[in-house]
Amino acid sequence: MLPTPAAEPLPDGPRRLIIDCDPGIDDAVALLLALASPQLEILGITTVAGNVSLETTSTNARCICELASHPEVQIFPGCPRPLVRPSVIAAQVHGENGLGGVRLAPPQMPLQPIHGVDFLRDTLRCAPAPVTLASLGPLTNLATALIQAPQIAERLELIVIMGGAVGAGNVTAAAEFNFYADPHAAQVVLHTAADYGVPVVVIPLDVTHGAIATPARRQALRDLNAPAGQNPIGQTVAAMLENYGLREQQARGFTGPPLHDPCVIAYLLQPDLFETEAIAASIEIQSPLTQGRLVVDRSGELGLLGRIHLATAIDADGFYRLLLEHLGRYGGEPPTP
Ligand code: RIB
Ligand code: CA
């Protein structure tokens, strides 16, 4: 029986969190959501090549932390390419600069001189208390750290991953981008987590496609703390979303872009926005046609080595209430009681 993921805030204070990401527009929104919450103590952000190059994801992570007035957050650049397969990026979805063409002030805060994998491995190895990992991009960094030192999994209390699709993928018919970009890493993480009994929540496209930034929701972002305009963040996020994944929207008949990665942070802040089911799972790594496919088995009898809590539904209105309330805090809006 899978352990129930500990998704409520810890009794002794904020949840200790490492965010691994490839900003990317939705990663950027996820970071803004996380940085606005006192429920989360961000131990560090690790970046990985994914939506755009490692250099660009690392620059964007710094820009977002400075936009959120959190230049103290430490950012550790990780792996510049997947474990095995050649690099793929998604600049056609996120724009060449990874933020939908929105130009933020060049970052003043430094990148950390420690590699993201070393930060993950050494922080977990020495962690005085268990750590949660939010994975928003290809899983190359975490997989590499787990290959180097699998026992660090004992210090992980929960891994929440945006990835996979039980229905259609978004890169191939079978695979979602994060698992497609580095299928070997995704398999290493799911299998090693199962070996060490680490609760893993996977939020697939089937659920994040329920979190569409409709025109009304994008207007609500623009209206945050308007007209005083003290909150450029609402307008900045709306501007990034305007050019996010337009081709996929048209192909799927969406009225706006799905906010994939913020679902991971929303799960940590308010898990009851989601429904999940315990399920056996693994990642297909062989076939050119289906590599990166999240393969699931509800019976648990078919030899799949991963054990996950697969998200199956989202309260989209509740998700956007949470997102708007948190982004509103940047403009001085007091948190709603
Ligand atoms: O398939 C969506 C995922 O791939 C998101 O994390 C997006 O940022 C990209 O990394
Ligand atoms: Ca991402």
Outline the fold blueprint.
Blueprint: E1 15-21, H1 25-35, E2 40-47, H2 54-67, E3 75-77, H3 91-94, H4 116-125, E4 131-135, H5 140-148, E5 156-162, H6 177-181, H7 183-195, E6 200-203, H8 205-208, H9 215-222, H10 232-242, H11 246-252, H12 262-269, E7 274-283, E8 294-297, E9 306-314, H13 316-328
Parallel strand pairs: 1-2, 1-4, 2-3, 4-5, 5-6, 6-9
Antiparallel strand pairs: 7-8, 7-9
Helix pairs in contact: 1-2, 1-12, 4-5, 5-7, 9-10
The structure holds alpha-D-ribofuranose (RIB) and calcium ion (CA).
Give me the CATH superfamily.
Ribonucleoside hydrolase-like
Helix content: 25-40%
This entry's quaternary arrangement is single chain
Number of helices: 13
Parts with pLDDT < 50 across at least 5 consecutive residues: none
| Strand order within the widest beta sheet | 3-2-1-4-5-6-9-7-8
Structure write-up:
This protein is an alpha/beta fold. It has a single domain, classed as Ribonucleoside hydrolase-like (Inosine-uridine Nucleoside N-ribohydrolase, Chain A), CATH 3.90.245. The chain is built from 13 helices and nine strands. A nine-stranded mixed beta sheet has the order 3-2-1-4-5-6-9-7-8, with helices on both faces. Helix 1 (25-35) packs parallel to helix 12 (262-269), helix 4 (116-125) packs across helix 5 and helix 5 (140-148) packs across helix 7 (183-195). The radius of gyration is 18 Å and the shape is globular. The N and C termini lie far apart (37 Å). 54% of the residues are buried. It binds alpha-D-ribofuranose and calcium ion. Calcium ion is lined by residues 21-22, 24, 26-27, 50-51, 136-137, 261.
